Amino acid sequence: MFAKKSRNLILASAIAYGMSVTAAFATDITGAGATFPYPIYSKWAEAYKAKTGIGLNYQSIGSGGGIKQINAKTVDFGASDMPLTSDELNKDGLMQFPAVMGGEVLAVNLPGIKKGEIRLNGKIIADIYLGKITKWNDQAIRAVNKGVNLPDMKISVVHRSDGSGTTFIFTNYLSKVSGDWKSKIGMGTAVKWPVGVGGKGNEGVASYVQRIKGSIGYVEYAYALQNNMIYTQLQSHDGTFLMPSSETFQAAAAGADWAHAPGFYEILTNEEGKSSWPITGATFILMHTSQEKPANAKEVLKFYSWAYDNGAKMAEELVYVPMPKSVVDLIRSSWKEKIKDTSGKSVWN
Amino acid sequence: MITNSKSESREKYQAFIDAGFKHTTRFFAFAVLALLAGIIAELFIGALPSIKAFGFGFFTSSDWDPVNVQFGSLVSVYGTLATSLIAILIGIPVSFGIALYLTEISPPWLKRPLGVAIELLAGIPSIIYGMWGLFVFAPKLADTLQPWLIDHLGPLPVIGVLFQGAPMGIGMLTAGIILAIMIIPFIASVMRDVFEIVPPTLKESAYAVGCTTWEVVWHVVLPYTRIGVVGGVLLGLGRALGETMAVTFVIGNAQHLSFSLLDPGSSIASTLANEFNEAFGKVYTSALIELGLIMFLITFVVLAFSKLLLYKLSKREGEKS
Question: How far is residue B153's CA from residue B156's CA, in Å, rounded to a whole number?
């Protein structure tokens, strides 16, 4: 306990010292990648700039682009919704850490159905997206929705047409809950969808779902809230039916075993726990382990360190889920351990 | 003497300027060629991993599976050709009508405002057409035209295949109609411009021997302006083949092969716009670049074919007389 406190004290004084030294020749931090965390990164950046004078230039070009840019060393950090495996990280001399989390919901367009009225589970969703369940009054859907008046209507499946981390998290979930999905389709930022129409971006999926009667689509929770969409309950790994909320997303994150996940490779889908929302995911930051410009790397780490400490409320306002304290401690020690300058000295200390 | 040498130096100076001008313009002209060759070479090099992996099968396969790294171009190529064909089928007669009315029938005071309106339409950015298509046009189509097509044309033999499925509003037909609306101003304004250059004496002589307006247009105006008209159509076709944003909004972006025009599909441009950003791995990126190369070839073939057509037409004319 004492050790932890004193470490934090040292950390805090180190941050303060670092700030006083580098503020004189402050340069903006550059980053590129995932579109999903862009709103919260820019909100954090605004507050951080007001406080420290250091800005963040973040290009939301997509996770794939973020990985390409960090490998080309054109940016200080890359951002990806899809974590890289430790093999991939080692190959390119990278390290990664989660920045913030979010949840996905299934939005539907059914006449007379209210928010959270319909219950779905992983098996049913997989069968709908495989084209096996084609009607809303299918026996399998009726079995978990006793008392709900399900219409005799064709299900129109909506998915993302662009490659996206959202799709990765969704297909990862389907692969975990359905053997059929895993063997026939698999997971990725883009997959070979057996049925349905594709919308570009969350807004594309949202507008298709709102326009096509009898449709179902997966969108980020924040997006469903902003657009006042009708979403469903989902069954957790432990069998309980849940409504999406910050609490259920956080429960999924807390249940994950981050300490034993090499390179923080942890996809928070189908996590154990009675109140763990089944389709939750983190978005990741990628950095080089050997830093040619240690001063820039330090600025990036300082920014995220500040965001972990001070950005939780801003994140919750935008319906993101901040990283739990225990995970932040793990992240800080991984910075110290992994990110070195060219002489082998830790950048973060 | 002095004036002589002065004019001599002036001549030299002019010759120098002339030569400089000649070389500069030649450089510009050849720069276009170099650029073209460079683009083809780059596309080919970029597409090489995909060409090696799939060979000729890339043209015949309708697979598009990033997870298992299996790619084929059939869905995107069909989508591109089908939507452009619909656009041209609707676009040509409407544009012809517009140009005809503007040059031959409309009262003079109406010509200018109508002409300006058409040019303004051509200036609307494509994303506006896409958004309008998705939010306004597609829902209307889903409620009106599409159910009618499914009920009345769907059961027919042969062409029925094109009109089956659910009326979702989006799909290849919608994309084709939006494209038609987008290319009409282009084709119509080119047609109007070339119709206007027909010498009045030709038309007046035809009218004088008792021709109707239609006969004048069909037998005098059109033969005189054939190359310009085909050029206008090509301009529109080129735009339809390559149009990205508007198509991406309404085509449905599904990578499975369906001949029904009411089903969602993909065009080459929409596939590239959707997937290039997040494409991972060498073969996936390379397959997308190969799609780009195919698009280039399609445009080239269309262009070459129409030139050939024009050449044949003018040759036949020579034989007749």
Answer: 5
Find residues 48-87 of chain A whose CB sits inside 8 Å of chain B: 61-65, 67
- What kind of architecture, by CATH, is found in domain A2-101+280-341? 3-Layer(aba) Sandwich (3.40)
B252 and A198 within 8 Å at the Cβ level: the answer is yes
d(CA A27, CA B158): 66
- Lowest mean pLDDT segment, chosen from A116-130, A179-193, B237-251, B295-309: B295-309
Task: Select the residue from B257, B278, B284 to test the A interface by mutation, using most A Cβ atoms within 10 A.
Answer: B278
pLDDT of residue A18: 46
Sketch the domain layout of chain A as residue ranges.
2-101+280-341
Check CB contact of A91 with chain B, cutoff 8 Å.
Answer: no
Please identify among residues 270-329 of chain A the ones whose CB lies closer than 8 Å to any CB of chain B: none
Average pLDDT per consecutive 10 residues, chain B (321 residues; last block may be shorter): 69 90 94 94 94 91 88 93 95 94 90 90 90 90 87 83 82 94 93 91 91 90 88 89 91 87 91 83 91 92 83 67 43
Confidence (pLDDT) at A24: 41
| Per-residue confidence (pLDDT) for residue A227, from 0 to 100 | 86
Q: For strand A29-33 and strand A56-59, is the pairing parallel, antiparallel, or unpaired? A: parallel
Enumerate the residues of chain B whose CB falls inside 8 A of the CB of residue A198. Answer: 252-254, 264, 274
Burial B131-154 (b: 16+ CB within 10 A, else e): bbbbeebbeebbeebbeebbeeeb
Test A65 with B277 for CB contact under 8 angstroms. yes
Separation in Å, CA of B67 to nearest CA in chain A: 6
- Substitution target from A81, A82, A154, A161 for chain B, most B beta carbons within 10 A: A161
In three-state form (DSSP H/G/I as H, E/B as E, the rest C), the secondary structure along chain B is: CHHHHHHHHHHHHHHHHHHHHHHHHHHHHHHHHHHHHHHHHHHHHHHHHHHHHHCCHHHHCCCEECCCCEECCHHHHHHHHHHHHHHHHHHHHHHHHHHHHHHHHCCHHHHHHHHHHHHHHHCCCHHHHHHHHHHHHHHHHHHCHHHHHHHHCCCCCCHHHHHCCCCCCCCHHHHHHHHHHHHHHHHHHHHHHHHHCCCHHHHHHHHHCCCCHHHHHHHHHHHHCHHHHHHHHHHHHHHHHHCCHHHHHHCECCCCCCCCCCCCECCHHHHHHHHCCCCCCHHHHHHHHHHHHHHHHHHHHHHHHHHHHHHHHHHHHHHHC
ipTM of the complex: 0.75
Residue A194: list chain B partners with CB under 8 A.
Answer: 256
Helical (H) or strand (E) element with A330 = helix A325-338
Cα-to-chain-centroid distance, residue B92: 12
**pLDDT, greater one: A6 or B281:** B281
A146: Cβ–Cβ under 8 A, 6 or more apart, which residues? none
Q: Pick from A194, A200, A207: which is nearest to B253 by CB?
A: A200
Phi, psi of A229 (to 5 degrees): -90, 155
A214 touches chain B (CB under 8 A): no
CA distance A210 to A213: 8
